[in-house]
Amino acid sequence: MRYAALVMLALIALGPARAPAAVFNPETFTLPNGMDVIVVPNRRAPIVTHMVYYRVGAAEEAMGKSGIAHFLEHLMFKATKNLAAGEFSRTVARNGGRDNAFTSWDYTGYVQTVARDRLEIVMRMEADRMAGLALTDATVDPERDVILEERRQVIDNVPARRLSEQVHAALFLNHPYGRPIIGWEHEIRGLTRADAEAWHRAWYAPNNAILVVAGDVDAAELRPLAEKYYGAVAARDVPARVRPAEPPPQAARRVTLRDERVRQPNWSRTYLAPGLLAGDSKHAYPLQVLVDLLGGQSGRLYRALVVDLKIAVSAGASYDSDVVDLATFGLYASPTPGGDVEALERAIDEELAKLLRDGVTADEVERAKTRLAASAVFARDSLGTAPRVIGSAVAAGIPLAEVEAWPERIAVVTQEQVNEAARAVLRDERGVTGLLLPRAAP
Amino acid sequence: MIRRLILAACLLLAPLILLIWSPAGAMTIERVVSPGGIEAWLVQDQSVPLTAIEFRWRGGAALEPADRIGLASFATAMLREGAGELDGPEFARALEDLSIGLSFSASTDGLGGSLRALNVHRERAVELAALALAKPRFDADSIARVRSRILAGLARQSEEPRAVAQRALNALIWPGHPYARTLEATVAGTRAASADDMRGFLARRMARDNFVIGVVGGVTPTELEPLLDRLFGGLPATAVPDDVPETAPAVAAERVVVLSRSTPQATMLFAAPGLKRDDPDWFAALLVNWVLGGGGFSGRLMTEVREKRGLTYGVSTALLPYDRAGLISGSASTENSRAGQALDVIRAEWKRMGESGPTAGELEGAQAYLTGSFPLSLDSSGSIARLLVAIQYDRLGIDYLARRDGLINAVTLDDARRVAKRLYGQPGLLAVVVGQPDGITATEPPPPAN
Question: pTM for this structure?
Answer without folding.
Answer: 0.93
